[in-house]
Design goal:
With 340 residues, this protein is of the alpha/beta class. It is 43% helix and 20% strand. Strand 5, helix 4 and strand 6 form a beta-alpha-beta unit. The longest helix is centred in the middle third of the chain and has 18 residues. The protein is globular, with a radius of gyration of 20 Å. The protein starts with a strand and ends with a helix. Bound molecules: nicotinamide-adenine-dinucleotide and zinc ion (ZN). The site of nicotinamide-adenine-dinucleotide (NAD) has 27 residues, from helix 4 and helix 5.
Length: 340
């Protein structure tokens, strides 16, 4: 399946196909210097396969985890590009999850003011979400994604086969973003999640394609996040608060897990029941222990308060959404519902 991201300039294709990694040279121009950026949590066999497809590959392996998404790693990649004599005609390929994609994309966008960037996302989250939209970034001074660029890849290859090595928890984590897109735009896709009793019941190629199509439509209409792209924040306003309150603790939750929880309190009761049923199948908690004040603080401090309210995404009917301005008091009472 091919999804075209039809941007006025820098349009590109996302190709979803089992085994496409092994045919990367048929899809990408690898007949030049190629910097493959990956991390040590991505099975090395994937980079080995990709290397054999390149004329002149260099490999840059990060330590896995969000901690690597920083300016030091960025500088190390730029240095490797320089030392390997990369020119404007060469390219960077990200082979990994969202951390690798965001960082490698940012590095490519800055080297010589921008060299070609290809993305081969290898987690569910990066396949259904971060590979579309062209947002690149690193974390800085304790703030996530605060330094970065909008930089579209030349092409994205999605090989669902690489998900076989991903843990169930990571799979579920990424699926939440696809469930979010279904809940706000596509009841038919939502129904597919409702029918599945486990991950393997899903036609993952189809689910990824559908989710990407939805995100691509949103991005096409709002490339630089002026308005519509806000809808992608469903579940994120409160989810982010929970995520922030738990980060750096030994009970930290993954981003998608927090977003899943966040969705359940930003919708009508019947919608909530349907979302909770899916989260239960995915083993994602719907209530959790966290520092309430810290979470509320993160919700209200981090987001743009329009006067005394925050604009949030609310779902009263699956497949649609509305924007609702909520006061701190309303957000607080909804956040409380997530406390165990
Ligand atoms: N640019 C965007 O629009 C956008 C959107 C959403 C999220 N993000 C960013 O994405 C990042 C999160 O991405 P993520 O959830 O993919 O996390 P991640 O990149 O940290 O990957 C999760 C873990 O899975 C491992 N892994 C990757 N592929 C694997 C495979 N095929 N088999 C086994 N293990 C594998 C990684 O080594 C890592 O340890 C965050 O930094 C977030 O800010 C960006
Ligand atoms: Zn998200």
């Amino acid at each position: 399946m091919i999804v075209k991201v039809n941007l006025p300039i820098n349009a590109y294709e996302i190709k979803i196909e089992r085994g496409i990694l092994k045919r990367a040279d048929e899809e990408l121009n690898l007949n030049r210097r190629v910097m493959i950026v990956t991390d040590d949590g991505v099975p090395s066999e994937y980079a080995d396969v990709l290397k054999t497809k390149c004329k002149d590959a260099s490999l840059f392996v990060l330590k896995h985890g969000e901690e690597s998404k920083n300016l030091d790693s960025f500088a190390a990649i730029e240095k490797a590009l320089l030392e390997n004599n990369f020119s404007r005609k060469d390219c960077v390929v990200a082979l990994g999850g969202g951390v690798v994609g965001d960082l490698a994309g940012f590095a490519a966008s800055c080297f010589m003011r921008g060299i070609d960037f290809y993305n081969i996302p290898t987690t569910v989250l990066s396949q259904v979400d971060s590979s579309v939209g062209g947002k690149t970034a690193v974390d800085f001074n304790g703030v996530k994604n605060i330094v970065g660029t909008f930089y579209q890849p030349k092409k994205v290859l999605i090989d669902p086969n690489v998900l076989n090595t991903l843990s169930d928890r990571q799979k579920a984590n990424g699926l939440v973003e696809a469930i979010k897109m279904a809940a706000t735009f596509d009841e038919e896709l939502f129904g597919i999640f409702e029918k599945a009793e486990k991950f393997d019941d899903l036609d993952i190629e189809y689910v990824i394609g559908k989710a990407i199509q939805i995100k691509a439509d949103v991005v096409e209409k709002d490339e630089k996040e002026a308005g519509l792209r806000k809808v992608l924040n469903f579940g994120h306003t409160l989810g982010h608060g929970v995520e922030a309150a738990l980060q750096d603790t030994d009970r930290a939750l993954l981003h998608g897990e927090c977003v899943g929880m966040g969705m359940t309190v930003m919708c009508d009761e019947d919608v909530k029941e349907r979302i909770v049923k899916i989260l239960n199948v995915l083993n994602i908690p719907v209530k959790y222990e966290f520092d309430f004040d810290e979470a509320l603080d993160a919700v209200t401090h981090d987001k743009k308060l329009n006067g005394s309210t925050i604009s949030t995404v609310y779902v009263s009917k699956i497949g649609s959404y509305e924007l609702r301005d909520m006061t701190k008091e309303e957000l607080s009472s909804r956040l409380k519902l997530l406390l165990l």
